[in-house]
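User: Hello! I'm new to structural biology and keep hearing that structure can be predicted from sequence alone. Could you demonstrate with Glycerol-3-phosphate dehydrogenase [NAD(P)+]? Please show me the input and the output so I can see what each looks like.

Assistant: Of course. The first part below is the input, the amino acid sequence of Glycerol-3-phosphate dehydrogenase [NAD(P)+]. The second part is the output, the predicted structure written as tokens.
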Amino acid sequence: MAEQRMRVAVLGGGSFGTALASIAADNGARVRQWLRDPALVAQINTQHCNGRYLPDYAINPAVVASSDMDEVLAGAELVLVAIPSKAFREVVRMARPYLNEHQILVSTTKGIQQDGFKLMSQILEEETGFTHIGVISGPNLATEIAQKQLTATVVASDDAETRTRVQTALGCDYFRVYASNDRYGVELGGALKNIYAIAAGMAAALGMGENTRSMLMTRALAEMSRFAVDQGANPMTFLGLSGVGDLIVTCSSDLSRNYRVGFALGQGKSLDEAVEALGQVAEGVNTVRLVRDKAREDGVYMPLAEGLYQVLFEGVPAREMARMLMLGEQSSDVEFILSRADVQQAHRESEGHDD
Ligand SMILES: NC(=O)c1ccc[n+]([C@@H]2O[C@H](COP(=O)([O-])OP(=O)(O)OC[C@H]3O[C@@H](n4cnc5c(N)ncnc54)[C@H](O)[C@@H]3O)[C@@H](O)[C@H]2O)c1
Ligand SMILES: O=P(O)(O)OC[C@H](O)CO
């Protein structure tokens, strides 16, 4: 008997939703993609192209787009939600009447909801109460996936069926899917790295070099890990694709929207101008605000997030902020080996001896 094709629904008509829909179709799945814009629906169905978000990409012709949520979700076994964080809950609520508990729901969105500091898979859980919930996250620039550049991602869920089904649906010769059971850590890494990508873009525009980028990325990882520990997550997850992997790509490539926003800011554009020129979502702008507030609330030391916040929202010049960060407290390299507190204590003692 012929193997049954997996039925996949993708919610979202942006670059990542479009790339994922096409991967699943390349893999032989029956794919339906939901998006709001009827003109884009028609373009995907007739020209197999998403001219607004991925103009040079030939979408697998088996992908069928629609603005009818019922039609898209009917019979779907796997639902991938690729909607920016600001609209994520609203779209999940629209979808809710057409969802059932047997379906696997996966967030692909790297952002945080302001209200309650919720990650997107927590919203999926809250809105549905289902058990097959997961996330995918990793170094996944949609434009490179569209070029079929060899790429890897992570599916994270504490539900083995969710992990296995996503690996089967999306794993192919140009897209490799690794599994994790640390859903929170994987999702947190994807959201946090956007902050540092903005800083990296800004540093590049200011003419800072590779030493600077390397310092920024490594200290970003230290800061992300500190925050993860505070949130009760496992910092070891950040050693994987969804942590250090995504940090590397997003801090190094001008295909990253967050990096591009930072670059535009470094060139002297205002935040509004930079975001408007981008015309797509750069989740880091919102995330830096939320993470900085949360870090202050919880007393977590996050000088890079704090510094970027002040540059973005309080008008502190980026060069001045870089100087202040360089002259900040003497600290430890790997805090899991030598703690910050120990370094500070040693400085206090040394100052005491000098008296
Ligand atoms: N693009 C990438 O390279 C990439 C890679 C990995 C993860 N992601 C994540 O995927 C998420 C989605 O990003 P994207 O790149 O596809 O975004 P995008 O900016 O390319 O497109 C966003 C899509 O969401 C739709 N949308 C926005 N508000 C909506 C609403 N209220 N109702 C319905 N649709 C709405 C837009 O119309 C558009 O189709 C982001 O959070 C991003 O972090 C993106
Ligand atoms: O374009 P960005 O900055 O949203 O980054 C896209 C992906 O998250 C890279 O993994």
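User: So the tokens describe the shape?

Assistant: Right, they're a compact way of writing down the 3D structure. Reading them back into a model, for example: The beta strands are 7-11, 30-34, 64-66, 78-81, 104-107, 112-113, 118-119, 133-137, 151-156, 175-180.
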